[in-house]
Amino acid sequence: MKPVRVLEGRAVPLERSDVDTDQIIPSDWLKRVERTGFGRGLFSEWRDDPSFVLNDQSYVGASILIAGPRFGTGSSREHAVWALMDYGFVAVIAPSFGDIFRNNSSKQGLVIVQLPQVDVEGLIQLIKDDATRLVVIDVDQLRVEVPEAGWQRSFELDPMTRERLLHGWDDIGLTMRREAAITKYETTSHAPTLVGVFDSDGHAR
Amino acid sequence: MGRTLFEKIWDEHIVASPEGEPTLLYIDLHLVHEVTSPQAFDGLRLNGRTVRRPDRTLATADHNVPTDPISTPVNDPVSRRQLEALEENCHEFGITVFPRGHENQGIVHIIGPELGVTQPGMTIVCGDSHTSTHGAFGSLAFGIGTSEVEHVLATQTLPQQQAKTMSVTVEGKAPAAVSAKDIVLAIVGTLGTGGGAGYVIEYRGEAITDLSMEGRMTVCNMSIEAGARAGLVAVDETTVDYLRGRPGVPQGEEFEALANHWRTYVSDDDAVFDAELVIDASKLVPSITWGTNPAQVVALSGMVPSPDEFDDPDQKNATERSLAYMGLTPGTPVRDIEVDVVFIGSCTNSRIEDLRAAAAVVEGQRVASSVRALIVPGSHRVKKQAESEGLDKIFLDAGFEWREPGCSMCLGMNPDQLKVGQRSASTTNRNFEGRQGRGGRTHLVSPAVAAATAIKGHFAAPSEVGP
Which residues contact B299 (CB under 8 A, 6 or more apart)? Predict the structure, then answer.
């Protein structure tokens, strides 16, 4: 993935709680075998509604999504992250997130900023007051700000996620440095394998 | 201090715990299906990587498969391509795969246990959030995304932050009319959709240990609906008895030796959990979801709630949105709500005991004329077993459709979908907007309540069905 240090862009408020991954990308889109092109499916069940916030002209081009609590709960589909990024989002700010969604985001470089609900609400108000305001997210300093409004908050990332974002490290490459440890573990593990359970056609022996 | 079951499994699977980095955890079993794997296999090819342990990897087609007779083709070209890709990828990388129509094919969380490849003490992952189902066997099982699928394929490990532990104790005996589904709906309703986030839940107490393995799987299955990535139940004789004789386990003395080892997968008496929840089983009742998230639960004998019942503006707002989407009026008795479709299936409730429970209700009855009712067994093995017991005939005689196995209408990736505005009673796990088809309205219920609802045409208890 590409290194991420400082992100700057306009934001769009999605004032809903429990936006699950089925809403982010409906299952009909999951039949595809590609990793690209999911942006068209983002929130597709809501985008037909002219009053849906992504259809609001004042937010066109926004690259930072601000949402309510428990964003990205439900299905493990990484397609939700692909859809957000393909659409043009680089970060999501919310009071809380689904665990698997948070993990998936970190693998793709979608920055997850978790702030207390009161701060998210404050930020949403700033953006609703003036949609042209720029939001700046500094992954190195773990800071999010709206410079024009003098608004600034700190956020947390686990240290390894921060490092990986800053360097654009590939997770698998990092793990492969531990090849010797994995091999050693395998020599001591007694957990059963599938050897001898099925024949070459998958029938139980 | 003693250790919890989760901590025991965790400790046994540590490959490396480097300073300042997540623990590298070994994965004993990786289950794969067609939806979350094609991009992972592409990633392997792109980087010239192989599958490290095909002998710890098992694949099945489930999400996309039509449930029409196997002889009919897969008409949707996009679905067909994805199902073909699974077979091609598995053959290329040497992974055992059960394609559509194979005798072992079925929903990934049904087949692992029934084949006995899901075993106590294991770490199990799958690119599917309902992997928590396998925790019923005292294994650590959780869902992962496609990048993690690729990571496990390549390295058989995952970097993981250690979760916190939560005990959910369902004390005392549950009333006879209360099923495993009602127990887990009550738990999700109590914890909320985010209450389990960051935790691995261990389900304990008499009402849990009284459950069969299939009931325990139903409970563990919906852990993710409370935000927990994994849920587990300690090993006991119910666990051992279920696994004895299954294809994936050894036989005779070798099995008994293994079983003795499995019996150590329990939390120590003095183990301490980071959080605890106690639920009184005697107060549980048959339940149903009324809204668009699985924590929006109400008693079958209850009424649709009003936004005024909530003080939190966020919850009030969410309730208003849910009611509008579901087309419901506050104060409506649940039993007055009519349904268009009844779906019995999914990794939550499509095992043989679920089908028996439903068949016991519908035997000799007729599905209401206004209702389309489908039964989708979880696997070919479940289907075959049900047919050997004559359950298919009971369902067909009552007017149910008896279909081929798959995930089906749980998430509407195949042609089994709700139409706009249609309302379902569904034995599945998610009532999200559009989950079962665009504009569809889902109410989660147990198999017995689903069956009674099919007969009456409105939400009903099994006791209401009869001559």
Answer: B285, B286, B287, B288, B334
* Residues B406, B107: Cα–Cα separation, whole Å: 5
The overall average pLDDT reported for chain A is 96
Summarised one tens digit per residue, pLDDT across range B243-266 is 999 999 999 999 999 999 999 999
**CB–CB contact A197 B115 (8 Å):** yes
Q: How far is CA B281 from CA B172, B284, B300, in A?
A: 5, 5, 16
Q: Do residues A67 and A14 touch, judged by C-beta distance below 8 A?
A: yes
Residue of A15, A75, A110 to mutate, testing the B interface (most B Cβ within 10 Å of its Cβ): A75
Cβ of B155 within 8 Å of Cβ of A182? The answer is yes
Question: Do B161 and A158 lie within an 8 Å CB cutoff?
Answer: yes
Under 8 Å between Cβ of B195 and B223: no
- pLDDT over 80 (residue B175): yes
Per-position b or e across B309-345, b if 16+ CB within 10 A of its CB: eeeeebeebbbebbbebbebeeeeebbebebbbbbbb
How far apart, in Å, are the Cα atoms of A132 and each of A66, A127, B208? 15, 8, 54
Rounded CA-CA distance B141/B159 in Å is: 15
- From A45, A182, A204, residue closest to B15, measured CB to CB: A182
Residue-wise pLDDT tens digits, B253-304: 999 999 999 999 999 999 999 999 999 999 999 999 999 999 999 999 999 9
Global ipTM: 0.95
Chain A residue whose CA is closest to B151: A172
Judge whether B355 and B447 are in contact, CB under 8 Å. Answer: yes
Residue B467 confidence (pLDDT): 67
Residue appearing with tokens 């998958």: A202
Distance CA A3, CA B124 (A): 31
Instruction: Please write the tens of the pLDDT for every residue from A128-172.
Output: 999 999 999 999 999 999 999 999 999 999 999 999 999 999 899
Q: Identify all chain B residues contacting A118, using CB atoms and an 8 Å cutoff.
A: none
Q: What is the pTM of this model?
A: 0.97
Rounded to a whole number, what is the distance in Å from the CA of B248 to chain A's nearest CA? Answer: 6
- A-chain residue closest to B146, CA distance: A78
